[in-house]
């Protein structure tokens, strides 16, 4: 384990337990996973089969991000190749990295991303498993949604988890960066769940909490008629107001 990983293991345990708190209902059983950047080319990530709620030090492994990035960029994507990747890339720990660790590696490749939380909240998945999933990215309903989640979350179609999903998301992120000039803070995966991308663990938790609130508000708006999104002018104003930028920084911890 790198020195930085040793220093951050307790941080990721706390992050994971908070995100997996049964009272939040973001994930149950062995659902969901988290990652934290350690050394420039390493990350800690939850091992497969472990519960977020009861996470402990042994629930995590450290992996070589460079090895992951090489596999994402080229080569086969079959199950045997992914299994070999997990064995070769693990630098510490005894568990097997989650299959979604490959998508964590895609997120950790982006500037400003240090912490990633992946969950399956019921309110969010109710929309992601419906024919109205696009509404999650069609606009913002209220100011705090913009402050915490940014103006442009990304929606990715359902793809088999592992290298296929990681590659599809990487392509979608390239298109998103070209279109908007900045990375998303939220990635929605159809029929799957949500990834919160952040600079700190606290910010990742705040983003996750706001995705749940936003989905609940959207579900409620649909129940009484339909959503009314903020205008582009008003959304842009919220995104750039000095006081809101300060509040965003404070929420990031």
UniProtKB/TrEMBL annotation:
One of its GO terms (biological process) is pentose catabolic process. The keyword Metal-binding applies. SUPFAM superfamilies: AraD/HMP-PK domain-like. The keyword Metal-binding applies. Pfam families: Aldolase_II (PF00596). Transmembrane segments: none annotated. This is Class II aldolase/adducin family protein. It comes from Leucobacter weissii. The lineage of its organism: Bacteria, Bacillati, Actinomycetota, Actinomycetes, Micrococcales.
């Amino acid at each position: 384990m790198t020195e930085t990983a040793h220093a951050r293991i307790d941080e990721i345990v706390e992050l994971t337990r908070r995100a997996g708190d049964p009272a939040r209902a973001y994930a149950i059983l062995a659902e969901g996973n988290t990652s934290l950047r350690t050394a420039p080319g390493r990350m800690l990530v939850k091992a497969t089969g472990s519960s977020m709620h009861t996470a402990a030090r042994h629930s995590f492994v450290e992996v070589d991000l460079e090895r992951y990035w090489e596999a994402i960029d080229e080569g086969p994507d079959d199950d045997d190749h992914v299994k070999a990747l997990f064995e070769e890339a693990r630098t510490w720990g005894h568990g097997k990295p989650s299959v979604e660790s490959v998508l964590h590696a895609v997120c950790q490749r982006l500037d400003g991303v240090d912490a990633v939380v992946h969950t399956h909240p019921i309110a969010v998945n109710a929309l992601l498993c419906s024919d109205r999933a696009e509404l999650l990215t069609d606009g913002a309903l209220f100011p705090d949604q913009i402050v915490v989640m940014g103006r442009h979350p990304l929606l990715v179609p359902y793809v088999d988890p592992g290298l296929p999903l990681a590659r599809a998301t990487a392509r979608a992120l390239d298109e998103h960066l070209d279109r908007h000039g900045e990375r998303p803070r939220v990635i929605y995966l159809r029929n799957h769940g949500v990834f919160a991308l952040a600079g700190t663990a606290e910010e990742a938790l705040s983003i996750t909490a706001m995705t749940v609130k936003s989905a609940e508000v959207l579900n409620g708006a649909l129940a009484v008629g339909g959503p009314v999104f903020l205008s582009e002018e008003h959304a842009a104003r919220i995104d750039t107001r000095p006081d809101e930028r300060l509040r965003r920084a404070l929420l990031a911890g």
